UniProtKB/TrEMBL annotation:
InterPro entries for this protein: AB_hydrolase_fold, Esterase-like, Mycobacterial_A85_antigen
Species per Swiss-Prot/TrEMBL record: Ileibacterium valens
Annotated protein name in UniProt: Esterase
Pfam families, per the entry: Esterase
SUPFAM superfamilies associated with the record: alpha/beta-Hydrolases
Amino acid sequence: MDKIDKNLTEAIIPYVEENCSVSKDKADKAFAGLSMGGYTTVSEALKSPDQFGYYGIFTPNFGCLDIMDAATEKELAKLKDADGFYEVSGIADDGLGKQDRYKTIFGIRRYLTDHGANLAFDIKDGAHDWGLWRDALTTFAKDHLWKMEKTS
């Protein structure tokens, strides 16, 4: 995960900020991932909490609990600084194989809520597949990101 974090923070984000018209404010940025990308999302929330305001964790794999167990209290304390987390899993999610998926799903939820994170949690009718992930992304974007302000 260190290589992914380094690539993201030292190459991808600087490149995008230099070459695209984007905000550098973390409140304007989100990071989301599905399956192994859910693991990556949890890792980024712990390792680079100053980069993104919102995190979408879609049907994460079992490794998430390992990185949360290994996180320092300082890292875990920063989870509350994010504008929001959205964690979602499917009722028929078999992406964890023989692992106890509920231990992972509810374990992540416990870590986030125990450390003051603003968490929206959802279990949807679906599996570890694109049908659920499309729905999760739609819900994340529509209901949990960047609340619009009314102007007159």
